Amino acid sequence: MQGLLILFITLIASFSTPLFAQFTAYEFFEMGQKSFDEGEFDLAIDHYSNAIEKNSQFVESIINRGVAYERLEKYDLALADYEISVVIDPSYSVVYNNMGWIHFLSNDYDKALKNYNQAIALDPEFSLAYNNRGLTNRALENLKEALEDYRKAIVLNPSYADAYDNMGDIRFELEQYSDALLLYTQAIEANPDFISAYNNRGLTSMATKRYWDAIKDFDEAIEIDPTIPLLYINKGNAHKGTKQYSKAAAAYSKAIELEPNNTMAYLQRGYSKLQAEQVLSAYEDINKVLELDINNATAYYYLGLLEASSNRYPEALKNYEQALNLDRYLKGVKEAQEIAKKALEKTKD
Q1: Where are the domains of the chain?
Q2: Which contiguous run of DSSP H or E holds residue 123?
Q3: Radius of gyration over every alpha carbon of the chain, rounded to an integer in angstroms
Q4: Domain 295-349: which topology?
Q5: pLDDT tens digits along 58-71
Q6: pLDDT tens-digit profile of 236-277?
């Protein structure tokens, strides 16, 4: 997850004392700024709208109303304001950046790229626009261009934690794990409270079977914010990698406390309990997964493993078949199926 800024226009002006209930466009704008800063986005929109009614060419009010709409996730209204603003004054690079972000969120990457290009043309030192263009290039699978954009963002802002993290994501995707680890570390150095970078570095350590390093990173992230279920799931997966299944189950249990219908947590806790020979409790977890998601192929696979552990091979084979019906490429199922078939044949001898 990357944190991205939505840039905001600040207008500096001095005002004379207004007559009672008679405010100028600038005064409405100033009231909008105050409301925006206080997180009162609906009220800010009202003030900006009054400013625009007083002066339809008041581009800063139009832009900032768009930003307020964006904060409320009213992206169509935000985009409409941004488009009006560039007709009046096309010189604001931040507006093109914000338009690009809205197009990015709606998966319209070609339009996003065009907007970011315009933002950078207007301001060649706009590090945020380079980072955002990098995200767009990555979405378009232009990995070389994305890496170059992140590099440029870092050159312009050497403490840009998001850009290091984003570049690390590409290195991870390319299985260049040493480079990814270095980049995530640089992201953490730039922002010691960067949860995403700790999580991503932990996942990279897991990919290289450095499970204890991974657990340490997940714990660091959890200390910063103990309310994110995914962090506990990842920690559980790392414990599972060390075959410490009781510790893994405890981590998954914490994820379930935070999110009672988290199918992944139940699924992995069920598997860990199976490995710890807590068969009845494992059944409960896997059945809970199927209650939440009847088409979960992995749940049928694990249910087959549970049946096989109790020598109920026909039931195991039935579940393996169901798993393959849902996902014929699911790793491990065909091997487990062959083992169950051979075991069943032995019982007939």
Answers
A1: 295-349
A2: none
A3: 27
A4: 1.25.40
A5: 999 999 999 999 99
A6: 999 999 999 999 999 999 999 999 999 999 999 999 999 999
